[in-house]
Amino acid sequence: MSILDKPLVSRPPERHPRRWLLITLVSLAALALIFVVVTGPATDASFVQHFVTAPEHFTYSGHSSYVSAVAWSPDGKRIASASGDHTVQVWNADTGSHVLTYRGHTLDVATLAWSPNGQYIASGGVDATVQVWNATTGQRLFTYRGHTNAVFDVAWSPDGRYIASASNDGSLQVWQAFTGNLLFSVRNAVSARNGAVAPWNAVAWSPNGRYIAAGGYGNAQVFDAHTGKLFSAAYGYNGGTIHAIAWSPDSRYIAVAESDGSVPIWNVATSQNIFTYSNSNGDVNAVAWSPNGKRIASGGNDALVQVWDALSGQHVYIYRGHADVYPGHFTSGATINALAWSPDSKQIASGASDNTVQVWSDPD
Fold it and tell me: pTM to 2 decimals?
């Protein structure tokens, strides 16, 4: 066979890398255009800005599960945070350096409160106990076992002698902080949606020491702090769930965080609704009144912390540190569970389901 008789081998098709590169770029541009149209230019610009800009806050990442509660020490030097990882951690408020980890609870820790003198911390959890321990050494001093179900909130009396604890067992109990001697117990008269006695989700002791405010389902209620006698139950007129309560520094008002996305402000003496702040998508889980009385911060399921004027309701600022994606924070839409103001009213600590506590400055 001559070379002329051999079958010709077909040439491989020519490649056009530039054409495919152009097609790829055009496709990406089209997808980007569709994304901008669907989400809106403002949203996209905000995303880019937050991702490329260093966050103006400090993030504490010592927990391995959701953060349920935060509390600032009275001297402003330390922050304590409670978590679903069964621990309470105490750390430096300025640097985040770890001070100690308290491991006394066997299940999720739901709440904590710093004693007025700064020496002790009371923490309550799903293990149905409230534990009082030394804030410097972590030594447990007393365990209160008066509840039969999870403890959702605790509050110290201003004189540091008593602790009020709110529980899923439907009781609000006030007891001596280091002996457990019961001063009084209030059973929730409201029925839960399943027909059982409703839990108490929130408790707050008035700064003047005279009253205790509590809430679960329905209205917030205020009791005499010495006798447990009901002062008024007219703060709410709602059938929703109360997640948190905060007193104004002068003990005249309470702010109530509710499941309908609102935070009503009530005059305690007159049961008058001063105004209702409504600018949240979903439940409001946390509310905190600044020590100087000027601001209220609230946060909830929308991952945003909103700061507003305490007596006018005028919006001041939205903090997005738990909501946005940026270097070092790749969890979007975390639920805000806890808020605490620094004693000088200049900073806020926020704890969320992204396992972090973020410390940031009030914009005022």
Answer: 0.84
